[in-house]
Amino acid sequence: MNTLGTADSIGYIRSGIHGVAVDGLGRFWVLSGEGPPLVFDSTGNFVREVGRLGRGPGEFVRPLSAVPVSGDSVLVVDGALRRATVVSASLAPGRVVQLPDVLRPLIVVTWPSLVVANGTIGTPSSIGWPLHLVAFDAIEARVVSSFGPDSGEVRPFEGSTLHQQLTRPRSGSFWSADILRYRLSRWSTTGDRLATLERRPGWFSTPSRFWIGNPQTPPPPAISAIAQDDDGLLWVFVRIPAPTWREVWPHAAEREYRYNELQLEKMFHTTIEVIDPSAKRVVARLTLPYWIIESMPGNRAAAYTVDSNGVPHVDIFAFEIARNRRENP
């Protein structure tokens, strides 16, 4: 296990992490949405911040995700500026691409001409669709086509279907998962739907909504990450309420809280289900006392933790399946 983050101001990880990624050189990127991206080496040692805080070239306001592209470069999406910056292998910010809206997550099929992105784009041809094929070969990202698991019709209070998690492309296809509904869809890299798999376990039987509960109500379940391994199995990471969720709200009646002020490590645990999509059955299941926030290559995942001194960290876990165990859904 690798642990990222320090108690010092340099390399300190703020709460409310939005993204964790690993680049082509094995370095870990942590994006808290507050300040520039933080980069750690493959052993967890802090390397440096990328760029600086601001709105100019090489600057970031609210970086949300980092996506490896060609030549060990990384594409950093800034939600506040609605733009993406290509950062070189030497960690130098370079080319900037303006975005039609906040796009995340993204997966690269062929850089820069074919990227699959999740987002809410308000143009006549894209509104109502959660997934988009986007070209990043100019100063403005160009939406080639839009698609999704439903009809594309915009209906009140059905925004949950517009928020999707994505697996990395494998054998000419990828999977998407509704964040607030336990539904998985397999797509060709040109946007044709190939399969749908939906589960309705008792603990996630109906669609959720975007909120974290209140002093009387636990946070609803949500899919925080999805991955496909080399055997074709799907790993689904579902955020669930931790037994300590009530401890997050000790003074909630006195004032309103910002999301980043809450002790999120006490709010969430994670249930991991490994699904054989061919047999449409769960082959392994595990609940961890951690909030898993991102899946990573090599059957790894990143969790947000806080140590006994109150210092936040990102822990990188590696998983494997005990082949002598099988579990029915």
Commentary on this structure:
The protein has 329 residues and is mainly beta. The protein has a domain at 199-329. Helix content is 1%, strand content 42%. The strands form seven sheets. It has a four-stranded antiparallel sheet. The chain is globular and about 50 Å long.
Terminal CA distance reads: 29 Å
Major sheet details: 4 strands, antiparallel
Helix fraction bin: under 10%
Beta fraction: 35-45%
The geometry reads as: globular
Strand order of the largest sheet: 1-26-25-24
Indicate the structural class.
mainly beta
Query: What is the typical, i.e. mean, pLDDT?
Result: 91
Tell me the radius of gyration: 19 Å
Poorly predicted sequence stretches spanning 5 or more consecutive residues = none
Individual helix count:
1
| Quaternary state of the chains | single chain
Number of strands: 26
Order of helices and strands: EEEEEEEEEEEEEEEEEEEEEHEEEEE
Q: Quick recap of the structure?
A:
With 329 residues, this protein is mostly beta strands. The chain is 1% helix and 42% strand.
List keywords for this structure.
four-stranded antiparallel beta sheet; mainly beta; 1 helix; globular; 329 residues
Layout: helices, strands, pairs:
Blueprint lengths: L1 E3 L14 E4 L5 E4 L6 E3 L5 E4 L2 E2 L5 E2 L2 E6 L5 E5 L4 E5 L5 E6 L7 E5 L3 E5 L12 E5 L6 E6 L16 E3 L6 E6 L4 E6 L4 E6 L23 E7 L5 E8 L22 H4 E9 L4 E8 L2 E6 L3 E7 L5 E7 L11
